[in-house]
Amino acid sequence: MKTKLLTKQDIETAAAILRDGGLLGIPTETVYGLGADGLNPKAVRRIFEAKGRPQDNPLILHIPDASWLERYCCGVPETAYVLAERFWPGPLTMILPRREIVPDAVTCGLDTVGIRCPNHPVTLAIIRLAGVPVAAPSGNLSGRPSPTRAAHMLEDMDGRIDAIVDGGPCGVGVESTIIDLTAPVPRLLRPGGLPLEALREVLGDVAVDRAVLAPLSAGEKPKAPGMKYRHYAPKAPVTVVAGPGEGTARYIRERMGKHTGVICFDEFAGGFPGCTVNPIGSGRDPGEQARRVFDALRAFDGTDVTEIFAQCPGDAGLGLAVANRLKKAAGFQVVEIGEDAP
Ligand code: TXA
Ligand code: MG
What we know:
Blueprint: E1 4-6, H1 11-19, E2 24-26, E3 33-37, H2 41-51, E4 60-62, H3 69-72, H4 78-87, E5 92-97, H5 104-107, E6 112-116, H6 121-130, E7 134-135, H7 150-157, E8 163-165, E9 177-180, E10 187-190, H8 196-203, E11 207-208, E12 238-242, H9 245-253, E13 260-264, E14 276-279, H10 286-299, E15 307-312, H11 319-329, E16 334-336
Parallel strand pairs: 1-8, 2-8, 4-6, 5-9, 10-11, 12-15, 12-16, 13-14, 13-15
Antiparallel strand pairs: 2-3, 3-7, 4-7, 5-6, 9-10
The chain binds threonylcarbamoyladenylate and magnesium ion.
């Protein structure tokens, strides 16, 4: 199969691919997605094949506005509408009880479904024209860093899907925040492009699933099945060095060699001579770090780097999502540097 590159003008061609049961790369504000008609089980199964995605990892449905919620979900709580009003279109996925019409191929047999309204004009237009909800995981091969530009998605998906719509680089850069509204207390299943603080402002109490912060023990089952897989990983192993900038930079300097890769804040980029250095923005700007973290992870592939060290932001704002992606890329191999390390 030859994968076509479409432009923002090709909305009709893109919608036709979805309606015909094809696979389409779609731009969103978070990351590129690998979309198919979410009501067509055969098309949805092809997503799993193209990505090499484990069969027990459900997909989320993308809709153009909150008025479609009732089509695919039942018992929608009032809070879902409050959140949609405030944050949609935007980087928030809500887990809600599903209706029968949603195929098992999407939910992997769960009685809930994840729904999101992406904030990208081209993709919203394509979904409206196709007239179907779009099932879409991130557009990477399973386990690889998520793509934040069309070229990155093509690297992984060339020859595996019908087309990719180039909608420019993604403005947020990490995937949506996932909130489970079926739990007694709303539960954060994945930190993402919408900060936890913003959800707490609206919902009050929000629980944080353990899988967000720590590796799971053997046999433990996370609420979001996807959180149990190693993810976002470049080919070389990653170690996250968490803590204050000076101390973490020193720790990396003491261990670096010719084949070391470094992900660091801009302020420290000059401090690792001889290494392959991929800065991700100022240490004070987690929004910029979010936009660049997946590109930085991806950029080590095809170099001679055999180990990667990464500085890591604190948990405030988008820092929680950036730190989560780095730690998952590292398989939770994390070194903590204390505040007053010598
Ligand atoms: O920003 C995003 O959310 C991107 C763009 C393309 O919209 N999509 C994305 O999809 O990140 P994916 O499949 O890479 O991640 C979805 C996560 C997975 O960890 C999956 O296990 C979880 O959502 N998930 C999906 N349905 C669920 C459900 N019913 N209950 C709990 N977790 C669910
Ligand atoms: Mg993904």
